[in-house]
Amino acid sequence: MAAGDTMIGRRIPVGKDGRIPEAFYGDPLPGDYCGPVSGYTGEKASVVFLLPNARDADAPASARGIQYVCSPPHVFRECADGSLEIRESISDQPRSTGWHGYLDEGHRWRQV
After folding, report:
1. Of 67, 70, 76, 14, nearest to 42 (Cα)?
2. How far is CA 34 from CA 22, 47, 64, 82, in A?
3. How far does the chain reach from its first CA to its final CA, in angstroms?
């Protein structure tokens, strides 16, 4: 993906116990995400995901594993279509993952 590119991901439902389901860790697809959940990073709500570039041949090793963001500083918005919107941007810092962007309504990952 390059700046301006988008891809549609999938929201994996949170388990009945309120946790990330074990199946998510098995073999998620690029763009899969789950959350928000509590307890993954202490008291902050978190969303876990596999970046859109995670399986690209040229993706750095730091992009290939499951990532997460917390609220705060990120803000999670439940959308009417069942998707989740994440603000602020999902950055590739402090270590570069080769991807920086947003998760928008409609399960749409948008690179900037």
Report:
1. 70
2. 11, 6, 17, 12
3. 10
pLDDT in tens, 61-96: 989 999 999 999 999 999 999 999 999 999 877 778
In the DSSP assignment, the letter for residue 67 is E
Residue type at position 65:
G
Compute the distance between CA of residue 43 and CA of residue 41 in angstroms, rounded to an integer: 6
pTM above 0.85, yes or no: yes
- DSSP conformation class of 63: G
| 20 vs 62: CA distance, rounded Å | 21
97 DSSP 8-state letter: -
The DSSP code sequence of 5-61 is -EEE-EEEPPPTTSS--HHHHHSPPTTEEEEEEEEEETTEEEEEE--TTTT-TT--G
Tokens of 36: 């928000």
